[in-house]
Amino acid sequence: MEFFDRFAIPHPSPMIYASMVAIGLVLIAIVIGLTYFKKWGYLWREWLTTVDHKRIGMMYIISALLMLFRGGADAVMMRLQTAVPDNTFLDAQHYNEVFTTHGVVMIIFMAMAFIIGMMNFVVPLQIGARDVAFPRLNAISFWLYFAGAMLFNISFVIGGSPDAGWTNYFPLAGTEFSETVGVNYYMWALQISGIGTLMTGINFIVTILKMRAPGMTLMKMPMFTWSALITNVIIVFAFPVLTIALLMGTLDRQFGTHFFASTNGGMDMLWANLFWVWGHPEVYILILPAFGIYSEVIATFSQRNLYGYKSMVGSMVLISFMSFLVWVHHFFTMGHGPLVNGIFSITTMAIAVPTGIKIFNWLLTMWKGKIRFTVPMLYSIGFIPLFTIGGVTGVMLAMASADYQYHNTMFLVAHFHNVIIPGVVFAMLAGLTYWWPKMFGFMLNERIGKWGFWFLSIGFCLAFFPMYITGLDGQARRMYTYSEETGFGPLNMLSFFGAGLMAIAFILIVYNVYYSFRHSPRNVGQDPWNARSLEWATPNPVPHYNFAVTPVVNSSEAFWDSKKNGHQLFKNKTEKIHMPNNSGLPIILAGLFFVFGFSFVFGIWPGVIIAALGIFGCMAYRTFEKDNGHYIPVEEIEETEKKLGGAK
Amino acid sequence: MKLKLAFITFAILLMTILTGCEPLLVLDPKGPQAETTANVIWLSILIMAIIVIVVITLLIIMLYKYRASKQSEDYEPPHIKGNPIVETIIVAIPVLIVIFLSIVSVKSTYEVETVPEGYEDNEPLIIYAASSNWKWHFSYPEQDIETLNYVFIPTHRPVEFRLYSYGPITSFWIPQLAGQKYAMADMVTKINLVAETPGDYVGRNANFSGEGFAENTFNTTALSNEEFNKWVEEIHSTADPLTEEQFDKLLEPGHLGQMTFTGTHLEFAPAPEGEHAGHHHGDSDEGHSDHEDSEEESHSDHEDHSSH
Questions:
Q1: Local confidence band at B73 (pLDDT 50, 70, 90 cut-offs)
Q2: Contacts of B106 in chain A (CB under 8 A)
Q3: For strand B159-166 and strand B125-132, is the pairing parallel, antiparallel, or unpaired?
Q4: Can you tell me the distance from the alpha carbon of B105 to that of B98, in angstroms, rounded to the nearest whole number?
Q5: Beta-carbon separation of B109 and A346 below 8 A
Q6: CATH for B125-266?
Q7: How far does B65 lie from chain A, in Å, by closest CA?
Q8: By the CB < 8 Å criterion, does A604 face chain B?
């Protein structure tokens, strides 16, 4: 029994027990359902072992949506707890765990997965490729992310969740002040999924640089592909820092080193620096693909080319470079004097310039356009003013002297939600709605989609704008409660109400999927939005080889040119296509990583050793495996194309 | 369109609440440092509001003029690559704004980091503020007294808080007097402030530090110099001395009310500065153990910070 004691939750509550039961029931239901409908084989062959970038993208997006609901539940609990003064719905320890997991889940397992999912689905299609450069590595990336996400999500029912904030500052996150295994989970869940992300970064850089269709020079790439390229370059530079910081944190917690301790030559500030050297570029990893999506959507629904293509690319390159020069603004208050603070204050504000260029370019893309108010466009239109507000409050925060007053307050919380929600979440919803027919062959209902948009936007404003005010009134972030005489009550109640509207919006969005699945017509054609870039030259849904014939490109809007200016996309005749084989190795490898991480969290060394041997075994197997892929014969391609009514 | 209306209404609402009946703590300064930051905040809000209004206006114009329902069926939007003049403007104006704000930011940062203007000649009152889970210990080496979870300061005299922590990183913050600064276990950081109006001001740890974080607050009372001296005398005649044993007990995690002692813990548990600092990468500070020598102190502190 002693062995199992370590798995007990240090801080139990009826809610956690209820969650345990719910998780158990859902798992049983899934197993029974799959067995009853005899879907195990289908699931294994078509999804779990797939190396198809589109399916991997969809699995990323589905996981991201699941994580959105997990993180969203955390958010609603926080807003409920702080809705009235001296509330006792959650106690301090629970609240601390909830805001920690909210942050980690939303950034690492929701937003990252969402953007990587989008890149997976869209980028190869936009550049006229059949898959990514390393399809199996891509599957490993996904399954490592998934293993990390699952490892993190079981923490609250086995052993306890991390409770030191998503920033996880030492010494608070050290064993002295955080005794449970929670922070170990943080270290390993982020480590495992972070390795997956780093692989994605390399994979997509190679894909975009080496696999573009003939004629597509770098300056003829669609803007989303450009944003993906730059994002992945940032990933490759930023994530190794996280990897090392997490490793050092693990050593501190589990092997008694003193990297981040305040004694024996360790330095707590080192964690803060390493974390934000990764963490600030991470913000741009999230926002740049979002900018890419807005560029596609705004151009499509203004029925005009993107204004200032070159300055769009230039500003993104500039942003990616500068994103590594601003990390100190996350701790202006650490006491490094006015000179250092002044320099980082200026670099931070300077980022507003390239970002501003992008905002004006989008506005000028609408100029002389023919604007259609579809759901993706509504999100893009809502994004512009809301993101501008978030951006300018960022400039306010960048002023070091004033930041001494904003730092650690609800003002800051309002600011970063004000950039991440209208920036990233709106973009993901816009992109999902926009590319939905490409993924599934039917459209999402516009009416329900618009309702969702309005609930989300108004809910967002009500939830987060009051925080700017309570922040200036001295409400620190991460306080599980406050007294009545502080006067924070009414505005926090308003925030809770806004959070409720946002929750309704997400329910509407899910309902829309169900409704449209049941009722939407299936004959949407290959180009339902009258769009401009190459992915719309494929049939809906896209066959797994993407393009029957590799397209030839002459501009950044090759598909538009083929429709309007008589450009011929498909000049060659159909030939047999070489495609990679499915493989069960990635999911097995990720399963071993999960066991490795889980054992490490609890210090069960035999488990760690066995899993590590298994991981190396998988790698050895892969090294000696002879897998040369397979060819799809011409007849099969022609038959598929005829059925889907694709490539003319 | 509804969207835009909603935003404008909201912006107006925001301004009304911001400027409304009860002033917000940060925007209701009671000393020169907080006043500097409040002015910077107002200035930036104003400039930012202009930017937001310009962007929203442009957006409304675009949406109104170029919406599809207003145009003829066969209108084909033109292909426009870009215009060097327009692009120069959209770069130049933000650059000018950023340059202006940079100057304001750097200048005001230097201002709030030093002794406020007009008080340079006054000798600052030095108070050590140390945080422990989840309390604040204030030591007055000059007056030889120590308080817990409350601090009295004289008005119109510069006060130098020297911050450090017994435990996680905390952030010392009295919103109406000055912005915050971290307190860490292995070094001393400083806040310079002056209170110009007598009164009670809320102070707190603003940086998350674990379970008792929400209640990790203290009360600041600013009173005239005579009253402050009277208060010090009173403590010397009424309070008990602080012993090492007692101080160790105070450090245990938990919440305590306000307490007062004579003597300071600095005598037996010196602050992590000078030779006691956590990070000594050189031996340049060796031999300077005089704690009361503020010039020497600030010198060694400065070195400490710049070496990281």
A1: confident
A2: 338, 342, 345-346, 400
A3: parallel
A4: 10
A5: no
A6: 2.60.40.420
A7: 8
A8: no
Confidence at residue A1, expressed as pLDDT on a 0 to 100 scale: 61
Q: How far is residue B231's CA from residue B31's CA, in Å, rounded to a whole number?
A: 22
Distance CA A483, CA B214 (A): 10
User: Once rounded to an integer, what is the mean pLDDT over residues A224-233?
Assistant: 97
Question: What pLDDT sits at residue B299?
Answer: 42
Interface touch A408/B207, C-beta < 8 Å: yes
DSSP letter at A154? T
pLDDT in tens, A461-512: 999 999 999 999 999 999 999 999 999 999 999 999 999 999 999 999 999 9
Burial class (CB within 10 angstroms; exposed 0-12, middle 13-18, buried 19+) of A112? buried
Distance (Å, whole) CA B159 – CA B172: 14
Asked if the Cβ–Cβ distance from A333 to B180 is below 8 Å, we say: yes
- Nearest-angstrom CA–CA distance, B279 and B274: 10
**Which one, of A107, A132, A308, lies nearest residue A223 by Cα?**
A308
| Amino acid identity, position A329 | H
- Asked if residue A477 lies in contact with residue A412, where contact means CB atoms within 8 angstroms, the answer is yes
Q: Which of A273, A272, A271, A282 is nearest to A247 (CA)?
A: A271
Say what the ipTM of the complex is: 0.91
A461/B45 CB distance under 8 A: no
- In B, which residues are within 8 Å of A384 by CB distance? 55, 59
Give CA torsion, residues A583, A586, A587, A588, to 10 deg.
Answer: 100
Q: DSSP character for B214?
A: G
- The CB density around residue A145, as the number of other CB atoms within 10 Å, is 29
Q: State residue A90 phi and psi, 5-degree precision.
A: -120, 150
Structural domain spans, chain B: 2-64+85-113, 125-266
Give the rounded percent of residues in chain A with a pLDDT score beyond 70.
Answer: 99
Give the integer Cα–Cα distance in Å for B159 and A417: 36
Q: Does A214 touch chain B (CB under 8 A)?
A: no
Q: Is B208–A401 a contact, with Cβ atoms under 8 angstroms apart?
A: no
Does any CB of chain B come closer than 8 Å to the CB of residue A11?
A: no
Specify the pLDDT at position B19: 54
Q: What's the confidence (pLDDT) of residue B11?
A: 61
Q: How far is CA A89 from the centre of its chain?
A: 30
What Cα–Cα distance (Å) separates residue B201 from each residue in A271, B31, B91, B151, B157?
A: 33, 11, 44, 10, 16
- Amino acid (1-letter code) at residue A61: I
Confidence of residue B289 (pLDDT cuts 50, 70, 90): very low
Read off the pLDDT of each residue in A200-222 and give the average, rounded to a whole number.
96
Mutate to test the interface with B, among A166, A269, A333, A451 (most CBs of B within 10 A): A333
A382 in B contact zone (CB under 8 Å): yes
Domains, chain A: 39-583+627-644 (1.20.210.10)
Rounded CA-CA distance A463/A417 in Å is 10
Return all residues near A477 (Cβ < 8 A) that are at least 6 apart: A408, A409, A410, A412, A413, B208
Q: Is B50 on the interface with A (CB under 8 A)?
A: no
Cross-chain residue pair B106–A345, CB shorter than 8 Å: yes
Tens digits of residue pLDDT in A585-621: 999 999 999 999 999 999 999 999 999 999 999 999 9
What residue type is assigned to position A610 of the chain?
I
Residue partners of A409: CB distance under 8 A and separation at least 6: A471, A472, A474, A475, A476, A477, B206
